[in-house]
Design brief:
This protein is mostly helical and 237 residues long. It contains ten helices and two strands. Helix 2 packs across helix 4 and helix 9 runs antiparallel to helix 10.
Length: 237
């Protein structure tokens, strides 16, 4: 068959352009989508909150409590110059650090040298050598510290004169000489202290006879009979 006899092809019909509003929307990249950035923001906020929360520390410190006086019944509340949450001493052989700590215990807590030594080695974990160096080089007036400690005990715990002396020598570990100096120079109203102690025991529902015995007992508050009598006369029944 010749080319002239071939069936002519039908010309193609030109395509009509599709209006823009009928065209399918272009798919946006993921980083151009709103929900993508919302997810990123939420993740960032959660990560920040978790990081910040792990670093938040509440400024709460528990006061150091030392028992004394009204003998096993009241607690002595004294400021402590260091946080009880402080971790173990990283350098127990640091003699200068031990000396600085000893100075704080002397000036703030009115500790005796023996009391300071014990605290440095037991609570602060200094070596015996560092603690001994500290007390040997500590500038402190033991008699003045004993008197200051006696004033704290008398004011807070309402102790008798004998109770103050016993507390200084037993708990505070002052020498008998320093303790005697303190009680001899302590200005205290022991009758008022006896009355305060009697009121305390009354709140514990002790009978008058029991209070009287507790006030004068050598195993109790060790007030004189005159001081105890004053307390009982002024104690409201």
């Amino acid at each position: 068959m010749s080319n002239a006899e071939q069936t002519p092809q039908t010309p193609k019909t030109p395509q009509t352009p599709v209006p823009p509003w009928m065209q399918p929307p272009e798919e946006k990249p993921i980083y151009k989508r709103v929900w993508f950035w919302i997810v990123i923001a939420v993740v960032a906020i959660l990560a920040f909150a978790a990081t910040a929360g792990s670093n938040i520390k509440l400024p709460i410190s528990v006061p150091k409590i030392e028992t004394a006086g009204i003998s096993q019944q009241l607690n002595k509340m004294k400021k402590t110059p260091k946080d009880p949450e402080t971790p173990a001493n990283p350098n127990p052989d640091d003699r200068q650090a031990a000396l600085a700590q000893a100075q704080d215990y002397s000036e703030v807590l009115h500790k005796s040298k023996q009391g300071i030594y014990d605290r440095l080695t037991s609570e602060d974990k200094f070596t015996p050598e560092a603690a001994q160096y500290a007390v040997d080089h500590l500038k402190a007036d033991d008699k003045a510290n004993a008197l200051a400690a006696a004033q704290d005990d008398e004011r807070i715990l309402h102790l008798s004169k004998q109770g103050v002396y016993d507390n200084l020598t037993r708990d505070e570990k002052y020498t008998p000489e320093d303790a005697q100096y303190a009680v001899d120079n302590l200005k205290a109203d022991y009758k008022a202290n006896a009355l305060a102690a009697a009121k305390y025991f009354q709140k514990m529902h002790m009978s008058p006879a029991e209070i009287q015995k507790q006030l004068t007992s050598q195993y109790g508050e060790k007030f004189t009979p005159e001081e105890a009598a004053y307390a009982m006369q002024h104690l409201k029944q």
